[in-house]
Amino acid sequence: MAFLSDTLTRVKPSPTIAVTSKAAELKAAGKNVIGLGAGEPDFDTPQNIKDAAKAAIDAGKTKYTAVDGIPELKTAICAKLKRDNGLDYVPAQVSVGTGGKQILYNALMATLNPGDEVIIPAPYWVSYPDMVLLAGGEPVIAEASSQTAYKLTPDQLEAAITPKTKWLIFNSPSNPTGAGYTWDELKALTDVLLRHPHVWVMSDDMYEHLVYDDFKFCTPAQVEPQLYDRTLTVNGVSKAYAMTGWRIGYAAGPQALIKAMGKVQSQSTSNPCSISQWAAVEALNGPQDYIAENNKTFQRRRDLVVSMLNEAPGITCPVPEGAFYVYPTIAGCIGKTSTGGAKITDDEAFATALLEETGVAVVFGAAFGMSPAFRVSYATSDENLTEACTRIQAFCKGLS
After folding, report:
1. Aminotransferase class I/classII large domain: which residues (predicted)?
2. Fewer beta carbons within 10 angstroms: which end of the chain, N or C?
3. What is the pLDDT of residues 246-303, one digit of tens each?
4. Strand partners, 232
5. Nearest 5 degrees, angle CA 400-CA 317-CA 187?
6. Are 172 and 181 in contact (CB under 8 A)?
């Protein structure tokens, strides 16, 4: 009898974490490495949020809390959803977890039975399929091509739905592509879902506030109120408030689902960090003006990276609407050989050779379910981005 669970054979470690770890190892060995793999802002957490955390410590708010969040944070979340999204929820419809990842995992664990299918548009965040597999479900990948700006079409969604479908995982703006769905594009998808009342929507809105140009964010339950009772709206404070390490995510949805998610959490991690919860209250209730200021920096970096990558032979980089990623295709590089002698057979080979020969760490497209491409996180300094893109240009020019 095997000691390790058979379930673990269905999943793989996170490729984004693996890339970040590899880059750190090379840095520690003295190599000049620029890491473009990490999905977190390089800004510091705003001072008012840090002050709220310190005040919570000084006030002795360091004990266990309610399993799925303190009342003050749930109230702040309800206010945020009303203010930003026009959605009405009460605290009993809100769950707070240790990051958005735990919230998604709790929902899948609470709802999936063996054989249940979950539609995941590709390119996708690397953890979606493996969380579905860990929860006993079956991921159904619906590929959105670069021809549709990496956005799922209504026909593709319709074709992916079967009697076994339980969830659609929806992510806009997207990790890894930065693609954001307009109101009309999302309405076309929700119209499909209205014809299939057995399908629920898990909307990952983590990059809601990181949008550029004139793009307007919207979320499924906002676009189609008839989906309110079968939508779980997921968000967190990690990206917009530069609080990745604080580990606070949340969701709002039907009360029965929220209660079931709380049961899962009660037997796994129990409550999220009490100090982080109080910091999140301040993040949601406090000043929001720095988000727009940070977005100006992100947009400048986006434009820099898109421009420079499009000058690299064999690379085509679309302009994303949000998040802090670009997802360039490298079809023109496949089949060539690097100056270091590496054969570029696929995007993983490209990323490996790029790291080993130039010290630039990116995540290969196959990790996100669509090749040949790679993901760049531009949540780092202009100096790092300019140098990294210069190295990528030189690497591509050296391919033969």
Report:
1. 32-392
2. N
3. 999 999 999 999 999 999 999 999 999 999 999 999 999 999 999 999 999 999 999 9
4. 202
5. 145
6. yes
